[in-house]
Amino acid sequence: MKVFKNFNDYSAQKPLALSLGMFDGVHLGHKCIIDELKKIGAENHLETAILTFWPHPRFVFNPNEDLKLLNTLDEKKLLIDKYGINNLFLKEFDEEFRNLTGEEFVRQILIDKLNVKYLIIGYDHSFGKNKSGNFELLQKLSKELDFEVEQMEAINIHENNISSTKIRNALLAGNIVEANEMLGYSYSVSGKVVHGKKIGRTIGYPTANISTESIKLLPKKGAYIVEVYIKGQPFKGMLSIGTNPTVNGDALTVEVYILNFNEDIYDQEITVKFRDFLHEEIKFEGLEKLIERLDEDKRLTENFAF
Questions:
Q1: What single-letter DSSP state applies at residue 263?
Q2: H helix intervals, the chain
Q3: Looking at residue 159, what is its pLDDT?
Q4: What is the pTM (predicted TM-score) of this model?
């Protein structure tokens, strides 16, 4: 997959089948769009492309909003590449771009710069200044500018439309299985292993503290069954998100106990994939009660069908 941060770096040698949007999570709804793009591309000898924005436009419009994303930029690129798209345009949502009307965007960017011949948008997508671009505008312009446009229907699971917002809400409620169903894969968090307070090793449960990207959404505080990937090798793990209230902690940490593992992995990048929710964050009366609960969590993790 070729990645472009500037439209001027792209020379439109071959016309495109393109979709645009944030694609946060690259979930099953997005995958349906990608599958349709690939089908149209193959049938019409078009290269496939996705145009998305980085950073998220909401960071520009609402700089004080504490928005957390389902994907880091690297994760988004990997997912889109894995699904077989030819070109990815990562446009900075700058002042000049945000002032383009929907029609200017279609004429100046999609047609003049990118030579789009087939455009697919999601069921609720709008674009351009004051959201002036929509499916109706695209239908009108398509005849004049010689491109085809298609609007995808919403994808449902259990009679609920899939959306990035619904996935965020599920994760924030600890509903890991529901979130993973909508994503089509296990939600993951990656980061470097850093030094912590090392309390876990004193009670027989040494943990790896993970430093995560600040924009990455963390599920709700609590304990989880996870799959831990170290240099590509999977291990069972139990992960805690919280402040360690039993030992009067205050900073939010992400810590994982890796079953059947005893190696020094400080400063290494690891990935954890969330598989199920164990329980809420608990303040125990003492370390003895904490160890009892950890023993039970370990038993549940060992018996979990990965």
A1: -
A2: 28-44, 57-61, 73-82, 95-98, 102-104, 135-145, 164-172, 176-183, 287-303
A3: 67
A4: 0.93
